[in-house]
Amino acid sequence: MFREGASNTLVSPSRVGTSRPQPGTPRDLVKVMLAAAARLARRPHLKSARTLLARSGEELATMLDPERRPDWAWFEIVFEDDACRLPAALLRAGRALGRDDFVERGTETLEWMLRGRVLGRCQSALRDACEAAFAATGDMHWLSIAARLQRLD
Questions:
Q1: Cα-Cα-Cα-Cα dihedral of 144, 147, 152, 153, to 10°?
Q2: φ, ψ for residue 2 (rounded to 5)?
Q3: pTM to 2 decimals?
Q4: Do 89 and 60 touch, CB atoms closer than 8 A?
C-alpha cells in the first residue's frame, strides 16, 4: 500500500515520483496546516506556505463527509484525543486564505465538539479554536466561549 519515501514520509504508490506526500490522518494535516498558517501570519506573501495551506485545507475539508450522520460532525469514524486541533487548523487556514468554506467547516466541527462530546479532553485546544473562530468570523460569541474555557482550566 505505502512505501517509505526518501524523506521518510509515507507515500502512496500512485504518488511515487511526485513531490507531494500523502498524509496518513487528519492529525498529520493539522500539523502541516498550523505550521503553514503561522509562517503565513509572519510572511503574508510567502507563496509556498499559502499553497501548502490551501492543499492541506482542501484535503482536510474533503474528509468531513457531507453524507455523515447528523450527530457525528467529525473527520474520522472515531475521535482520538490528539485530534482536538482540527477545527483550529481549518479556521486559521480559512482566515489566511479567505476561504469561507474552511471557516464554515471549522466552526461546524468546533460547535460539535462544544456540545459536550469531547469537552473534558480538549479544553486548551478548544479555547485556541474559539479564538481562531473569532479571528475568522468576528463573532464575539467565540470570545465568550474561550473565556469560559479559560476559567475551567
A1: 150
A2: -120, 155
A3: 0.65
A4: yes
